[in-house]
Here is the input.
Amino acid sequence: MESIARREAQVITEIRSRDMVVFTNKDIVRFLDTSKENTYRIIGNMLEKDLVKRVEKGKYILTEVWNELDIYEIVPHIFQPSYIAFWSALHYHKMTDQVPRTVFLVTTKRKKPLRLQGQNIKYITIKRSLFFGYERYDKVVVSDMEKTLIDCLRNPEYSGGISQIRESISDELDTDRLIEYCVLTGSSAVASRLGYLLEEKDIEFREGELKELIDTYTKLDPKQKGSVLNSEWKLYVKRDVR
Here is the structure.
């Protein structure tokens, strides 16, 4: 390995001391109290020596951190605010045995997809009012189990489909929190799908609060054809759903 220059060593020390996953050119300017031009030279040299990896334009990660962390520990720090969601969150919480080929995150801003460590990274933009119900586990920022289910019911297309969502539902979920989150979304479709699936799984819940949210008819699976109406939940369901 090539020798590490004094300024490069300073960068590594500063990043380590702050336990940062991803850092930017601006961070280096601040840490070293140096010019942008000098920062570009330092980062360029560090890239050549494989001391850092570029995750996207202007954003870097120490190579030692890149080698140590998995993709779920890295991606929430590339673009903020964001948290791991949908099928990826189902997988993280062991609510499914299926491993998604894409890492899904939600954010309140527009963000182009990335490819890192051989995986596709997709950011889904949501309203600020829906950006809640997430937790931090060390370096992983992910929706909690209940918000994961609510997000999945809003967008089954990012969640492996309704069959995948159905399998993820169990009595380990906090139904009071599920209903609270559903109310916060104000979504009639989510209320219909949630109520139907909880009832299907014989899980007790406060169904009255969900039914108050339902003001229109929707499909259990947005892509389904040949369905029948479940009038209780104002939901069109496939004939062979069970």
Q: What stands out?
A: The chain has a mean pLDDT of 95. The chain has eleven helices and twelve strands.
